[in-house]
Records
---
Amino acid sequence: MLKNEFDQLKSLSVDAGYSRLADLSRRFCQAGQNWSIVSVNDSGRGSLIYIDRSRMQRRGTKVLYWARLELIDDPTYDYIIARWMADCSVGTSVAVGVFGYAGGRVVATLENEAVAALTRTSAVPGSIGEQLMRAACDQPEGER
């Protein structure tokens, strides 16, 4: 979605182009102070993965946390935010809510029955899922 908007910069004057680029950059880079970068993938489509350390909830070895995925040239979403539940003792996780955003609004959700159908899976070694689970599980309780 953002790729189309960045492509339109070519047709603008230099001043208008820089102004529009600044607006797009602010919109794309506004994850906020509570989001910590977990992964930057500049191969292929490119993405940024964040975890919200301020909203993590722990119960024993289980952690409930929010993750944010920003895809640089996704035609549908500007970013996706998902609520994850990880069981750190066995290394499994499951998404309990997934929300796709475009233009600053939720445009798609995957909750309730659809999410209930998802099974807890072990994180694939070296995957973004493993990086997120490690970031959530390795954070000491009470630290934000």
Note: Residues 33-137 form a domain with the Lipocalin fold (CATH 2.40.128).
---
Amino acid sequence: MEATKIVDVLGDETSSDVEAPKQETPEERRIKELEHQLALAQGTKDVKPKFVPSEESTKSILIHFVEDGFTASGVNWKRGQEVVFNPGTKPYEQTKDRNGVSWLAMDDKAQMRRFGKVFFRRGEWPGLGYDAIKPDDFEALNVIGTKQAMSPLDAAQLRRAAEMERNRRRMAPLMPS
């Protein structure tokens, strides 16, 4: 072992039996770089939930969202969406916190305390769905710098949104384990 000179904060040189740091080879640096890239890539992958059909029964919990932006079970829920959870199923178990309490048990008061607003309520959505929206219901937008008007909604987009929501309707999300 070779003695290494160490300079302390006062500028005095001392000698020590501590080894100098080993220089990495280009291969070792490349391996570290690739491991770092892999770790970054794995951390950015969003896990998508799988939607599972829920058999509705008297014990089912049907909720609708009254505000956009509630995120649970890997889904950012939007106003008007409905979902059914059945107690005892995996999707329902994933709604529970570490104490075994489900967020589905929260009433308006509890949501106000925790989130500052009410995001969901029990029962069916009382409002209209995508099927009731018509592109002509909205005023056309003027495109800046042109005399062209643009409709904010396209009939094809509305049909796609309605179809997606009909297909997902009331299915509970299940996050992979």
Note: Residues 26-44 form the longest helix (19 residues).
---
Amino acid sequence: MMQQNVIALEMIGAIVEETVQAQGWMIPPPVLGYTVRILADRVDRVPFTPEPSYAEAYMKLRTPAEALTFGDTCFFTRSVFPELLERRGVGQNYFVQLGQSSYTMALKHAELPHVKLLRDHFEFMAEVIHTSIRHTGYFRSMWS
């Protein structure tokens, strides 16, 4: 991991952990760590969106590794930029469905308990991250 990503991982991890602690959420450390790594890995990736589109990238998935990476991209998008395609009439649930489906593909070929939990609680975890980094997520407004 590059030095820049290590620093991003530590900083993002601290921000997310602070939010989780403040809200009193009980999130398994492997799941929390994995979501933080997804963010740190993509924080400086340009473009972070699949080319040419999410739908085409999904249709081209061939390997479990591709499915896992695409699921992570959908999680990142839903967590950090949920409004990305709203002007085109595409809601946040689009990223949730694509991400969960991609994780299901990957899980058919590998035992990844943290990915299974993330898939099963995709929307909640995305909102945890959104709340952590934006300080305006649904959960923050509910308890602040």
Note: Residues 3-143 form one domain.
